[in-house]
Write a structure and sequence with these properties.
- By secondary structure, this protein is α/β, with parallel strands linked by helices.
- The protein contains 6 helices and 7 strands; from the N terminus they run E-H-E-H-E-E-H-H-E-E-E-H-H.
- Strands 1, 2, 3, 4, 5, 6 and 7 form a 7-stranded mixed sheet that branches.
- A hairpin with a 6-residue loop joins strand 5 and strand 6.
- The structure holds inosinic acid (IMP).
Length: 199
């Protein structure tokens, strides 16, 4: 008889995030289900805190085992801005606004970070993080992905932005794929006493 895959719900309104995470989970034989749930954002400087709070709330309201994620885009020359405010800045300044702020800036180093929190109803959340380093492009390039993807060039690649790659290629080294892979390893091994990992 075929063994049922363990199931976890990903509470997110962002379909792009869900598709990326589902591919990672699938490679670990975990079935990730999309729970279209508005993430409750607390005002905090820490992605881990935001993701943990969101997972706790989603598990409480839905009575399911859930993961929630919070991600941010951190630009070195802007002292880490927009960071945890990435969502708000994306909607207000937009990519053009970030490119304008970076117009005469030589150091274009930036990174994405994702925090993935898993929570069972009435339990404490457990959190996993992932980072991908790179730099801010001079212009928007590409039509795939979402958010800041058109202006982010990951290090060690061939100069294409994330938006010029398909999901599988972005997943080879994205912040989200790393955080979800850490969660999946922990999730599968937790009955053997494996503890959480972060980076
Ligand atoms: P949140 O985690 O949904 O709050 O995301 C914060 C902001 O960062 C949103 O504007 C997202 O579109 C953006 N963002 C999160 N992850 C990614 C990514 O993988 N690529 C590009 N933008 C992202």
């Amino acid at each position: 008889m075929k063994e049922a895959k363990p199931r976890v719900y990903f509470a997110t309104k962002n379909r792009g995030k869900f598709l990326e995470a589902a591919r990672v989970a699938d490679s670990f034989k975990i079935s990730l289900k999309h729970l279209k749930f508005e993430k409750q954002e607390i005002q905090a400087w820490n992605l881990t805190e935001i993701a943990s709070h969101a997972a706790f709330q989603a598990a409480k309201v839905t009575n399911k085992n859930v993961v929630a994620e919070d991600a941010g885009f951190f630009v070195r020359a802007l002292n880490g801005f927009p960071g945890p405010y990435s969502s708000y800045v994306f909607k207000t300044l937009g990519l053009e606004g970030i490119l304008r702020l970076m117009r005469n800036v030589g150091n274009r180093e930036a990174y994405f970070q994702a925090a993935v929190a898993y929570c069972k109803p009435s339990h404490r959340p457990v959190c996993f993080t992932g980072i991908v380093k790179g730099r801010v492009a001079r212009h928007k390039r590409g039509t795939q992905g979402f958010g800041y993807d058109p202006i982010f060039i990951p290090s060690g690649g061939d100069e294409r932005t994330f938006a010029e790659m398909g999901t599988d290629e972005k997943n080879l080294n994205s912040h989200r794929a790393k955080a979800f892979a850490r969660f999946c390893r922990w999730f599968l091994g937790r009955s053997h006493g494996v503890s959480s990992e972060t980076s």
